[in-house]
Amino acid sequence: MRSRPMVLALALTCALAPLGGPLGGPLAAQQRTAPRDVRRVERRLAVAPDVALRIFNLAGTTRVTGWERDSVVVTAALPRGAGELVAGGTRSAVKIGIDAPGAPLDAPGAALEVRVPRGALVWIKGAAGAVDVEDVTGALDVYTVSGDVTVRGAPAQLGAESMSGDLVVEATAPSMRLKTAGGAITLTGGAESLTIATVSGPVRVRTGPLLRGEIQSVSGAVDVDGAVRAGGELALLTHAAPITLTLPGSTRAELELRTFDGLLINRFSPEPARVSRGKPYRFAIGGGAPGPGADDRARITVRTLKGDIAIYRGPGGS
Amino acid sequence: MTATAPAPDPDAPDAGASADLVRRARAGDHGAFAALYRATVGRVYALCLRLEGDAARAEELTQDVFVRAWERLATFRGDSAFATWLHRLAVNVVLGDRRAAWRRERRVRPTHDALVLEGAGVAPAAGGMLDLDRAIAALPAGARLVFVLHEIEGYTHDEIAAMTGIAEGTSKTQLFRARRLLREALDR
Amino acid sequence: MTHDDHTHDGPADDAAALAPLVAALPRSLEPPHDLWPAIADRLGPPAAAATTRGASAFLARRWSTAAALAAGLALAALSSGATAWLLRRSEGAVAAAPAGLAPGEAAYQRTAAELARVLAARRGELAPATAATLARNLAIIDQAIAESRAALAHDPGNDDLVALLYASYEQKVALLRQAIDLPRKS
Q: Could you tell me the CA-to-CA distances from C4 to B147, B173, C7 in Å, in that order?
């Protein structure tokens, strides 16, 4: 014969079973009461394949995934007090977000998941929650305050900005603009035109051939392993942080390196560098002499006040 | 090698109407200047976008152009069409911005904003027109400058030299380079 | 590169191939946003000799953008300590600036100070962690500016040092603008 507590637990468990989850004892039953406090809301919208989407979720996480359908499906998991889902617009312009007026700072955040047409133009604003975007091929702009941002895929254009969140980009795009104050920036992929700016976050870039690149940091270390196309330009600048640049052996470029108070290490060319402190160090790689007329060489400038500069030869080519 | 003459600008206001608007704008009439803005912003923005290659920056520069035009209205003598005067002023604003950027550090801009071109009422046409704008935006800065000024805006090499401070020979070299790079890009 | 480089496919072929494409390019493109409100904000009387690139024009341009965001996104006031700290640091940077500034530096300093005042005066709140991140990174930039200025004092007119100095100023202005545009309570 079962004891009363066990009977109660069993009854509670059976009552809660339709909410999902394995059958279990009293503790599991209490845990299964938690989902009651989270509402799941879903909206579906028929849209144009290049719909312009504005998505905002200031307290929770946001995940956006591109798919092949001309529709937007948004699912929000809303804890109590997290606000309400808003979703609406026209076939060509849609706004989706969590509206929580008057919510306190410690209000719970909603988890937002949005499926969008791959070619959509997507603009996302978050705050503390993470933002993940995958498989969007339209233009993409993401802003957070401290939430980490992850982007995967091949957007037509990418802009990502955070005050202190980390930016992790595993993508290729013709144009990328990545910016943080204190967050780390990690890019693996490729861009024709790349702009990266950070104050104190470290920057790590592994990229295919750049046509134009500018990477700027005040105190965050900059580590770039990539190629620069013929006629292209790459500028690396820090105030006090080290700069490491690895170029393929086949690179043809004119380089100008300048550090006023740091070490300058050239491991690309066989000849050792003899550089006076603070003087620019100019040299050409890939054969031929620097100067006018060498128009298809890449131009690479590296400047830092106090950081060390190190240039390495990577695999590929002579 | 002569430049292809640019097509007549359907957006240019007719001379009589704009002379009246300029006169009123000079007297402080914002409404008149707004009308001039509406009639000419498309040309100015196209120039800024093609020279800069960055939609956000092009919008900022377009604003700068019209603010500068408002301040310099007293110097417009009416010996050319207002649109022509404004266009030359726009080129000067963009070039002045470039010189300031070079002094700070060579500034690299993202390529043009796909959203802008597709949202600007540009119908995709045969012949890869949008591809050409993308390819122009991806040119090195010097080549792009000369190509846009010469091939699209119709300035001669000596005019480009006078405006930009580069030698006329350099302008021609940059144009040859731009054309070659564009052909390579479009043939890919 | 000279036209002598082209042997079997010369510059004339390049020009001929591109000409129809160039001719088909639209000469006019509408900007994605209506710029007139921002322009109208910046117009003064025609006789005024205001510079277009001075701090007030810069701020007006930024403010019109920020003002649009401000409706419903008002920044909460910083804690009094952080506010005073930010204001003191930025105003202090202006007050302590010696004569002999690099060209354009004064404009950067005025702009940064004005933005810092805007940031401090917006009565709302930033999350403490965000305020701390902002303060920490502003301090890093201010130190970089000071060190660049010191280096420039020893080597005046050095273009690379000027470039490094301006880069730090632009980081500061960009960071202050980014902070002003932050959503409330984040």
A: 19, 11, 7
